[in-house]
Amino acid sequence: MIRILLIKLLDEKSFREKRRITLSEVSEKTGISRATLTRIANVPGNVTNTDTINALCKYFECEPGELLSYVEEQKKAVEQNTPPAG
Fold first, then answer.
1. Backbone angles phi, psi at 60, to 5 degrees
2. Measuring CA to CA, which residue among 43, 52, 70, 60 is closest to residue 9?
3. N or C, which end of the chain has less CB nearby within 10 Å?
4. C-alpha angle with apex 79: 81 to 49, nearest 5 degrees?
5. What are the boundaries of each domain within the chain?
6. What is the DSSP letter of 82?
């Protein structure tokens, strides 16, 4: 699954600028709705589009590889270790 490292980049930018940056501010500067940013930040595996990724990369002044991370899904491993029902 692809994970968007929004909170990590937000924390790093806040630290660099020595101020608190909110999702509302990111929304204002990027044109991405607050609801979309909240989903990206809180819902694992949230699906988004390249326009959103582009806007976030521009805002954070980063490359897509700094914003996105591949995380192997654990679901299959859990299913394989679950005893059969019955």
1. -85, -5
2. 60
3. C
4. 140
5. 2-81
6. S
DSSP class per residue in 18-63:
TS---HHHHHHHH---HHHHHHHHHSTT----HHHHHHHHHHHT--
- What is the model's pLDDT at position 46? 86
Q: What is the per-residue pLDDT across 38-78, written as a single tens digit (0 to 9) for each?
A: 999 999 888 899 999 999 999 999 999 999 999 887 765 55
Residue 40 to residue 11: CA distance in whole angstroms: 15
Dihedral of alpha carbons 56, 58, 64, 66, sign: negative
Q: Say if pTM beats, i.e. exceeds, 0.70.
A: yes
| CATH 3.40.50.300 applies to domain 2-81 | no
Nearest residue to 43 via CA among 86, 76, 80, 2: 2
